[in-house]
Specification:
about 140 residues; globular; mainly alpha; about 0% strand
Length: about 140
């Protein structure tokens, strides 16, 4: 079994990492750096567990695309004035966040300890969900 430093997985060695560890909705100015940190977190997770097999690593690009799509959808939700278009964008964002919930749950389940690592991964999606709930 390979040991991976927790601080590497949680990006705690990167400036601004506190955004990944706090709870609740993100402030408007926190959204872009949060997505940058989220990408780094996914990169590091796949770097640590990608060796498990091609099936795990095959999801890497797909998951990175999802993060980009969610970021774009957040921007669209904040900018869209047309009620019908806004409703469609909100629905797409909600569905994308549901997929992200599943992905981070899978990421968390790979590690058996420490328990704080599970909480860290679950919080990645919950912060975006809280932000969605706040702006909607």
């Amino acid at each position: 079994m390979t040991r991976v430093p927790v601080n590497m997985l949680t990006c705690s060695d990167i400036e601004g990492h506190q955004l990944l560890r706090t709870y609740g909705p993100l402030a408007h100015e926190e959204v872009p750096p949060y997505f940058d940190l989220l990408r780094m977190t996914f990169d590091r997770w796949f770097e640590a567990v990608g060796y498990i097999g091609p099936a795990v690593y095959a999801n890497y690009l797909q998951n990175r695309e999802l993060i980009g799509m969610i970021e774009i959808l957040f921007d669209e939700v904040l900018e869209e004035d047309d009620p019908m278009k806004a409703w469609k964008v909100r629905k797409e964002l909600r569905m994308a966040l549901d997929v992200l919930d599943t992905i981070v749950a899978t990421m968390a389940q790979v590690f058996h300890a420490p328990p704080a690592l599970h909480d860290f991964y679950y919080n990645l999606a919950s912060r975006l969900r809280a932000t969605y709930d706040y702006i909607i």
